[in-house]
Amino acid sequence: MDHSLRLWMRMLVAVAAAMCLAACDPGFADQASSPTDLDIAGFKRTFSETFDRLDVSAAGPGTRWVAHTPWHGDFGDAAFSDPLPGFPFETASNILRIEARKEADGKWRSGLIASRDHDGPGGSGFAQKFGYFEMDAKLPPGPGVWPAFWLVGITAAPRAEIDVFEYYGVAPDSFHANVHVWAEDERKFGDGKIVDMPAGSASGSFNKYGVLIEDDWVTFYLNRKQVWRTPTRAEFKQPMYMLANLALGSGWPIDKTPNPSFLYIRAIAAYVRRP
Question: Which CATH number does the domain housing residue 198 bear?
């Protein structure tokens, strides 16, 4: 699907969903306007990445991260590069920097990390059914940037996707929280919300973007305050693995995208509820 059409569809879905929930479930509307805190003390950490070093390879196995999607599909207007010395990944002071840059050949290249090397039962790496997933990150400024932190189920078809956040540099004071089931039949589904942020905070400071997947609800958090939730569909009740990337475009022009652009990640973690 054309990226611009996909984006507009997501925006329409988010607006329609918000209107429906407010009209049909007043209690939900009240909850959305009065975020609740996530008490992390009630959770046990199952995955912790603080980037004292980066264990990444082009395709695995045997490394904590791989540098491509497990289904080996790039997207956006910057090709995801195999890890090279100093590019597209670099760590310093326990922070991962993912760089997008325009090369001498006029092509953009950037970086992606995934916690699993391929789909299906034979894949290796980290995936978890239910629990809380979080990334602490400072996002790049400028039109055309499209960073994201997202989860994908290990079952390849239909593909279940939860976008903890998708950020579009053309709208610098908000991000998109989305859920998708990519299918060719009646199981195809999408829902989402545009979450507002304080002006300048997305690229000016680190923020924690999180999602809690439970049997009944998928709940999204910004700095551990609830910003949206949606019922948990059957497709999300499976182990999910984590991806983080700095893509470009999504239908928006990149002629004014800062070269280079940087996504900074301070931590990625996963948790399960304590008994």
Answer: 2.60.120.200
Structurally, how many domains does the chain consist of? 1
Q: Is the pLDDT of residue 107 over 80?
A: yes
| The predicted structure's pLDDT at residue 35 | 54
DSSP assignment string, the chain = --HHHHHHHHHHHHHHHHHHHHHH-HHHHHHHHS--B--GGGEEEEEEE--SS--EESS-SSSSEESS-TT----SSSEEPPPBTTBSEEEETTEEEEEEEE-TTS-EEE-EEESBSSSSTT--B--BSSEEEEEEEEPPPSTTEEEEEEEEES--SSEEEEEEEE--TTSTTEEEEEEEEE-SSTT-EEEEEEEE--TTHHHHS-EEEEEEE-SSEEEEEETTEEEEEEE--GGGSS-EEEEEEEEE-TTS--TTS-SSEEEEEEEEEEEEE--
Residue 136 is predicted with a pLDDT of 99
